[in-house]
Write a structure and sequence with these properties.
The chain is mainly alpha-helical and 179 residues long. Helix content is 41%, strand content 6%. The chain has one domain: Orthogonal Bundle (hpI Integrase, Chain A). It has a 3-stranded antiparallel β-sheet. A hairpin with a 4-residue loop joins strand 1 and strand 2 (29-32). The N and C termini lie close together (4 Å).
Length: 179
């Protein structure tokens, strides 16, 4: 779940309560309903290649695709992971003891704003931030397909694979289990 949070640049609660009926594997999008969003509007997240692999791993670990009541990220008892699960996992990672899960969103924004040429409005849309009145008028759609290359580049950067950017400080957070 921690890796999913990092790759989606989402909030912990959005990931921990993700259910399979929000995932469209054909379109490769995750639609978070307005009721779970801070801005109270649906938010569509492009699913990257690595995120797709995480979903496959979640299926192997007991989360059943197609069941509308089953959460994607489950604990050993079949319940959604706790609010603290991602933070406690992060604290156990050497070198990450003092960081927060929410800081992953700030890291994404910093990377996208300073290391790439992606437009600010796409970065803000990925973070589900409210745009200004003028920007809102021109951003009638969520621009998910325009955000997809940005999120694939972010996934590559997180994995230390982005040859086009300085990855000297990149640390892969994957544990192999994806959860």
């Amino acid at each position: 779940m921690l890796e999913w949070i990092a790759l989606a640049a989402c909030r912990t609660g959005e990931a921990r309560f993700a259910v399979w009926d929000e995932i469209d594997l054909e379109q490769k999008v995750w639609t978070i309903p307005a009721a779970r969003m801070k801005m109270r509007r649906d938010h569509v997240v492009p699913i990257t290649g690595r995120m797709f692999e995480i979903l496959e791993e979640a299926q192997r670990h007991g989360s059943v695709f197609g069941s509308t009541k089953r959460h994607v990220f489950l604990n050993g008892k079949g319940h959604p992971l706790s609010e603290m699960a991602a933070l406690m996992f992060m604290r156990r990672l050497q070198g990450f003891e003092k960081y927060t899960v929410h800081g992953l969103r700030a890291t994404f924004k910093g990377w996208a704003a300073t290391e790439t040429d992606f437009p600010r409005e796409l970065i803000e849309e990925q973070l589900a931030h409210q745009l200004g009145a003028v920007e809102r008028a021109y951003m009638r759609l969520s621009a998910v397909e325009r955000r997809r290359p940005m999120m694939e580049a972010w996934a590559a950067y997180c994995a230390g694979e982005d040859a086009g950017a300085d990855t000297g400080n990149a640390v892969a957070v994957s544990t192999g289990s994806g959860q």
